[in-house]
Amino acid sequence: MNLRIFTNQDVPVHENPAYVERTKALQESHEEAMRGNSSVFGVRNERGWTPPTLEDLEAEEASKG
């Protein structure tokens, strides 16, 4: 959707309710698309590989002596 149809040159975009609402809707749509199916993973270990936590790094350092 083109936001140009919601633009009023006499009103700043942040004060234009139609523009703001449509922008929010577009952002929500894009957020859902970027999230994809990742929301189905409830806990860290269900996601496959994840970066180590600080606790993981500290445990590794402690094991090196």
| Estimated share of beta-strand residues | under 5%
Uncertain runs with pLDDT below 50, 5 residues or more? none
Mean pLDDT, nearest integer? Answer: 79
Please count the helical segments. Answer: 2
**What share of the residues lie within helices?**
40-55%
Kindly describe this structure.
The chain has 65 residues and is mainly α. It has a domain at 7-37. It has 2 helices and no strands. It has helices spanning 17-35, 54-64. It is elongated, with a radius of gyration of 22 Å. The model has no long low-confidence stretch (mean pLDDT 79).
Detail the topology: elements first, then pairings.
Blueprint: H1 17-35, H2 54-64
From the structure above, extract its key features.
65 residues, mainly alpha
How would you sum up this structure in a few lines?
The chain has 65 residues and is mainly α. The protein has helices at 17-35, 54-64.
